[in-house]
Amino acid sequence: MLCGLYLHGFEKGYIFVAQFGLNHITLNNNLMTQKKLITLVTILICCMGLGACKEKDKPVEVKISIPEAVKLLVGETYKLEVNVYPKDLKVTFESTNTQVVTVCEKGVLKAIAEGEAEVKATAGNVTKVCKVSVTKPNNIDKSRYLGLDASAEDQQYFAPIYIPKEEDFKPDKLDLFKSAVTPFGWIYEADAKDPEGKLFYRFVSPNKKDENGKEIDTKSQFCMDFLAYNHSMPGAPVYIRMGLYRHFAMDYLVKPETFTEPKDLKVQKELLKIMEHYGFTEDAQFTVLGRDNAYVAYNTKFDPKTPLRGVMFTEREEDHPGFRLTFQISYGRR
């Protein structure tokens, strides 16, 4: 294919032709009649046009990938991870058994009943299949929840937290944790750094927008954006971690007397209400853990044999000017 054409010496009856790309052609000082010259140029231009057309008309190869298999519990939702090329190509979804699992136009699966089904994702003339297996959730001891006795209205904001027995805090218990928290709205989300859950299980809060894309009232959102059960972190005991994705402009876990503006003190009180709601009210104090300001309190009523320790702390991240807030629950006193 000709990528460039340069003519020189037309008025003198000779031509210099430069073809950039595959090779280089020079016809220099060859006297030609004007008629022959025009014929040669016409042929070259036609070749260039044909080459360009061939490149333009070449069909784009469609590529699409989805998980080969997914295991869900009845009542669980799961968003398919779909990669498609070209990126702007529309993907459609179809379930082969809607009595077992349904799928919406955005690729979100909903497990309806026990059984097997296939979900097909199609882009252009390419279709990929994900095999879906749905099983019943485990029976969960209701006494192992914090916040379960709250009103339905409060649970929309303070989602119940499952506190497993220490012996159940293991890397092969994913079904147990999913059975415990997904009925209350938490959505399991495998982490890219730990896709098989060998170190922790992470759940995220439901979407903060309704089906029409409208922002849901703050009081109807979970107070935390994610819930993680860290069962095998190297060098650390098991613990539960909840956090927010957003950052605060200032550190709200310094001692109350530090604040000069009433509005800042109000924000701090609202944050501490989260710990109070889950029963962390005993031996409460502001402190410093490492380099981070923190608020520590205990809940001994949940399990008198093994007190629960709650810590809310702020972290300043190097790549962000604000402060990130975390609420962590662990077993025993420290």
UniProtKB/TrEMBL annotation:
InterPro entries: Big_2, Invasin/intimin_cell_adhesion. Gene3D superfamilies: 2.60.40.1080. Residues 59-133 form the BIG2 domain. This is Bacterial group 2 Ig-like protein. It comes from Porphyromonas uenonis 60-3.
